[in-house]
Design brief:
2 copies of one chain form a homodimer. With 601 residues, chain A is an alpha/beta fold. Chain A is built from 14 helices and 30 strands. The first copy, chain A, has a domain of 73 residues: Immunoglobulin-like, CATH 2.60.40. Helix content of chain A is 24%, strand content 22%. Chain A starts with 12 loop residues before the first strand and ends with a strand. Chains A and B meet through strand 15 of A and strand 15 of B.
Chain lengths: 601, 601
Amino acid sequence: MTKSKKIDPLRIGVNFHADGTAKVRAWSPTAQTLAARVNDRFTLPLQKAENGYWQATTGKIAPGDRYVFVIDDEKAWPDPASLSQPDGVHGPSQAVNVCAFNWTDGEWQSPPLSDYILYELHTGTFTPAGDFEGIIQKLDYLLDLGITAVELMPVAQFPGNRNWGYDGVFPFAVQNSYGGARGLQKLVDACHKKGLAVVLDVVYNHLGPEGNYLPFFGPYFTGKYKTPWGDALNFDDAWCDGVRDFFIENSLMWFRDFHVDALRLDAVHAIRDFSPKHILQEIKENTAELSKSTGKTYHLIAECDLNDPRFINPIPKGFGLDAQWTDEFHHALRVSAGEPRQGYYSDFKGITDLAKAYRNAYVFDGQYSEQRHKFFGAKTDNPGRQFVVFSQNHDQVGNRMKGERSSMLVSFEMQKLMTAAVLLSPYLPLLFMGEEWSAPSPFQYFVSHTDKQLIEAVRKGRSDEFREFHSGGEAPDPQASETFEQSILPWKFSAEEPHQTMLNYYKALVLLRKTQAALSDPDRKATTTTVDEQAGVLTLFRRGREQDFHCLMNFSAAQLPNAFSEGKKIFDSADVLWNGPGTAADIIQPESIIIYQVSHV
Amino acid sequence: MTKSKKIDPLRIGVNFHADGTAKVRAWSPTAQTLAARVNDRFTLPLQKAENGYWQATTGKIAPGDRYVFVIDDEKAWPDPASLSQPDGVHGPSQAVNVCAFNWTDGEWQSPPLSDYILYELHTGTFTPAGDFEGIIQKLDYLLDLGITAVELMPVAQFPGNRNWGYDGVFPFAVQNSYGGARGLQKLVDACHKKGLAVVLDVVYNHLGPEGNYLPFFGPYFTGKYKTPWGDALNFDDAWCDGVRDFFIENSLMWFRDFHVDALRLDAVHAIRDFSPKHILQEIKENTAELSKSTGKTYHLIAECDLNDPRFINPIPKGFGLDAQWTDEFHHALRVSAGEPRQGYYSDFKGITDLAKAYRNAYVFDGQYSEQRHKFFGAKTDNPGRQFVVFSQNHDQVGNRMKGERSSMLVSFEMQKLMTAAVLLSPYLPLLFMGEEWSAPSPFQYFVSHTDKQLIEAVRKGRSDEFREFHSGGEAPDPQASETFEQSILPWKFSAEEPHQTMLNYYKALVLLRKTQAALSDPDRKATTTTVDEQAGVLTLFRRGREQDFHCLMNFSAAQLPNAFSEGKKIFDSADVLWNGPGTAADIIQPESIIIYQVSHV
């Protein structure tokens, strides 16, 4: 038997046909019998099929019905591929006709990645409503800001209703408290109507610690490899194909049934797979096949901490992913902005490294890392559109002990400089919700587990984690509802000063990037830098066909003479327009950026 | 600091200069202080150098001196890179001037891999002497047999003096009871003088369970990955560079200081490394660099159970290893010869799979394996010279419960057929010591540990292992000296019948392979097969420029009509010359092979 991957036959869980019947399918190679118990009223036996699958086609299940799978006539568990968990992770699954949605985005086509300006948000804290409907109400605002893609932190069902999303345990079920599958479909449709792309964060490297019933069905995990979260997902050990199919189908589902434009694949460095074909490559190939059949473009963006271009190189040279996050740009930028060099920041030297990040994407491409205790990284010549950069994101903010945004750490002027450093880069800029108006609130780490031992372990884990970073103060209690509530964006301040000015500043820079081809040019050779280490000034040159942009960034606290005279000064973050200290032709203000436009003859 | 790998600076342990002084170097990134305690008389402090190394140059150490390393002024351990352990694995290390050997092989150059006909032997049981000197006495015999390369099972120092070698714990020290470093150098020099290449089996995927003091020096192992032997060697976690250097230098040492022609890298599938550059590729690159400086050719041959051509594809497409073992050829051949389809044999169907192995090297190149419970393998179009095949080897014999050779399992006729199947293949044939005269003794699994708990664990492990394979009988006690003694080749029988005839038979086939270009042609397209499943006959066609060879192999127990009429019959294993039942033009005898030579017009 040779493996041939088809898109439709892979569907798992409960899937409705056009005629109203449903195909019920589960993977459990270790089960002797498997049946669906529906509405606690009747039992539907599944027939054994190839490769550990069980299936049945039935007219007896309707959308909305609740069901569990009964293994060996003994124990009952929710469906690993459940599309809905109306009573949370420990309750029964619910059948959903995921195809029964009236899409209005037939004409929609995702923009090319190079046009992506990403806005990362957490559904539960982006608005007081804390759900997809809340986001829909904000779409005009986001459109006005100028971003082109909404990136949702993970929405797979997690325990309780307060979680970043990385503790999800039902990869196919959309969090019920966010609005479930239907709510997400509505949101994506609304985004597309406004012209916004949607990126969804998905976690294929671990499952959360509470409500993970997958091991009862089969060897989803393997002791062959360890991850920070325990045994690794089984992508290459015995029975791995069912697990591979599970995540391949998951990635296809979001594109096919939810119309998302891109997936952000969480922490792919923690995916352990020594198969001849890496699971990420197999996901890419299946995505490409789906793309052919739907005529839509889909992007795969990895979070990857390996500085290894194999992930983003085209097949067969690499796994073929379209882009990756680059934390090192952030680290270099933040140290340039005065962050103490402790923890993972200790490897970064400030503007010299930031300049390297502008030119090479990876700061470490073979040097010794004192922090990692090894030579780290490889050379990359991949184009700029393959890298996502940011000055803030959920991790970089929320994984500080107190979850401080830049607004609570650096001056208003420095915030403006950092933003410009991101938006003028040859990479794909990502903003973290609220940074555009310098939201004064924290984004903290929060959970809502029910298992007491686990709650204690998470509390302890958090406070241990910060020994390295912070000497004083207490970490907020991740389990406390206040920790979550403090993290909800306080929009009431956004219309006040200096928030309104910051918002205008962001809009101006986003617009500049969108209207000047040289600024979103992903060609590496079009970007050069000079660094005056002593003065603390980095100059970024972005070259275009008709004009160049010279960006002088003063990361120092000193007012410096500005001898730069080429071209036309078109932007100064120190302008009083942006609540700055004011400008003059021959100076560059502390913590400020000046942009010159130089036209070719 | 950028990493630049040089051959000489990598030397670790105690290495003597031409002026008699010695450089002492150890890697211990976790030590606060490190010193060498010499002859229990004086202490030589080492200075801290880069990347966790400690070193000193001294005139106070002479070859023959014994020493230990003292960490943090507290505990003393033998040198991980020790070249000699005169008192075994728990005793002190001994300084050896590994460069002070009068080599006489200056003109020697390894044959190309395609000329290799390998003879695998275990130093301890190949001769009653059980050492390198014993092998030297047999070189004329081996030359007469016609093999071109002697392959030594691992010789790194192991506990006691009875061990296959895979429990080695000092990768740089040559087993003292075999004759140590000097003994190995003498053997290699003698081989080269006779025109024989030397292949050395080295283990880079684990260390043995007794006498492994490496963890006291630093993070040689990582809990990130698990292997069948516990935590994996640390090739990609924090501090991995010292571990990588250790094994890179080890591979270089065997080529540079011991003049071996090839390394057989044990079980590379158990090496876990997600670095941008795999450790095997780094070993290959360093070997190639050494080759440039010495002008000699070095080969790297992997034992690999992954059916993934990435290991043997050239850099950058793959890791660049020169060849790999293919157990699947053996499994298919053995099932063809009547082996019950249990354990790992259950995946193999006999001559159909053997035919596939002849054409494709991998039997599984993407099919579902019931034994592995997953789709397994990838396509390969690598040439035949990249694959090593055998009908017996130390594992396939010794990992049977009672260590039975083919001589104890199948008829004399079938032994002859199996041998021919190997020697006529388009791959590199490997013989296992003694098979050439159908030695009637077993090759069993034996150890000589001193740790009682370990001894019990090994005993239990062995008997558990055979539940799957054998229902009756007891596994021999691995720790018992009789188990070892029974495995020593009983050469006294070799001059008797039918052993003498078998030896002549082997010589004839080896000679045929060596003299007929078509038979060692590694071009895949020059090999085709036909299979008569019903009759049990596989016909192998080897095409040459001037003539072809058609090899009819009858694996059945029936005498069959032979309608084959093309060309000239040049060989029939059923000939009375080979103690067979006799031949006739129109029949093919049970369990026999007939070879036809077909000249091109």
